[in-house]
Design the sequence.
């Protein structure tokens, strides 16, 4: 598997883009995790990577999306993005995941990327804006990897994301492949699509389309349309893990998850302080689905390090989560989570009523399955999970 993947990488991705990814993403990523670990030993907190929601604007209305779609769209000012990145650089953080909404609807996206050639950006996109012009911008910049959200074959994907979206996304993948860009596919596993997406034919299809990684997520029932029928139960989540390990043994593509460490133990990156989410208004949230905050990037005269490091809210969330589960408190303890936000006097930046949503949510199982841990059984993945911020996890 490793030899076949290495061959694909060096023959299908531009050498210039590959070298940039190796230095900006891999090397600087390892350095960022080391800096985070040194801070942690001193009792300090600053994540090695950040999620920046550039906008809550989007051209799709996907089921189960946590983004509010009513009223005027909110966009993060370019000046705020630059300030965030400037502080991050001082603390060895050079990797930023850009999301939304649809980040490619932010009118200053390319200026932001071009102003920071020493950073690496992952753009999570629905794939409908991957025009030839945008693809060539990505290639010229060189410090970008594209992650296209696709949730199963055509009918399954379009049932959740909208008619015709699958075809537009595949056309975008073809342009990325032709331009020899390093890109991947982001797939959310649900109760409806798991048999499709955790399948050799699905993985091979996207490998043949030029994807170098397939990034798996597990569905979270949040937002205006939580669609709980998409959730995975305990048995299906254990099966998810089992199939993932099996696929990793023989597929020439990197299969990323956000949920388990090298020993197969459940992990919540937000509970470890590995990556926080910053909304379009500058609110600092524990993770992307939870648009609740007590702190903003403008606090402490814009000193983001001081704000995050001294945040009682973020520290409190870490303690709250760790005391309850190694998995996901959104799934397992929604009512207690709502009460934590209420007690913390957190502001709701979702544009909805997140507290009511959480109070009314039914507790469900997450990826924490004591007694059923399955360690990584390949040398490559054990190394990646122990050494790199891999799958939003930097843990070992």
Sequence:
């Amino acid at each position: 598997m490793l030899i076949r993947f290495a061959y694909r990488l060096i023959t299908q991705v531009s050498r210039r883009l590959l070298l940039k990814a190796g230095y900006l993403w891999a090397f600087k990523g390892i350095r960022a995790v080391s800096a985070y670990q040194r801070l942690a030993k001193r009792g300090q907190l600053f994540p090695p990577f950040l999620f920046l929601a550039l906008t809550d604007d989007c051209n799709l209305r996907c089921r189960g999306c946590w983004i509010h779609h009513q009223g005027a769209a909110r966009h993060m000012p370019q000046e705020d993005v630059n300030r965030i990145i400037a502080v991050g650089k001082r603390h060895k953080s050079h990797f930023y995941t850009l999301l939304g909404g649809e980040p490619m609807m932010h009118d200053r996206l390319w200026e932001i990327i071009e102003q920071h050639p020493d950073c690496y950006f992952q753009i999570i996109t629905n794939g409908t804006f991957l025009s030839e012009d945008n693809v060539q911008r990505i290639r010229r910049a060189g410090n970008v990897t594209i992650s296209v959200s696709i949730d199963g074959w055509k009918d399954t994907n379009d049932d959740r994301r909208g008619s015709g979206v699958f075809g537009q996304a595949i056309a975008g993948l073809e342009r990325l492949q032709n331009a020899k860009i390093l890109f991947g596919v982001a797939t959310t596993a649900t109760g409806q699509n798991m048999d499709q997406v955790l399948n050799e034919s699905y993985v091979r299809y996207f490998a043949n389309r030029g994807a170098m990684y397939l990034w798996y997520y597990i569905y979270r029932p949040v937002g205006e349309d939580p669609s709980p029928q998409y959730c995975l139960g305990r048995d299906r989540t254990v099966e998810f893990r089992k199939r993932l390990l099996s696929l990793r043994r023989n597929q020439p593509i990197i299969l990323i998850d956000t949920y388990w460490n090298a020993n197969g133990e459940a992990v919540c990156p937000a509970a470890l302080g590995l990556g926080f989410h910053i909304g379009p208004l500058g609110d600092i949230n524990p993770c992307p689905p939870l648009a609740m905050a007590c702190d903003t990037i403008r606090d402490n005269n814009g000193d983001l390090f001081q704000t995050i490091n001294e945040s009682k809210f973020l520290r409190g969330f870490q303690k709250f989560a760790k005391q309850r589960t190694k998995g996901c408190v959104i799934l397992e303890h929604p009512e207690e989570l709502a009460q934590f936000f209420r007690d913390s006097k957190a502001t709701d930046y979702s544009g909805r009523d997140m507290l009511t949503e959480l109070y009314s949510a039914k507790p469900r199982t997450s990826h924490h399955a004591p007694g059923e841990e399955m360690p990584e059984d390949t040398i490559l993945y054990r190394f990646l999970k122990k050494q790199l911020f891999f799958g939003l996890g930097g843990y070992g």
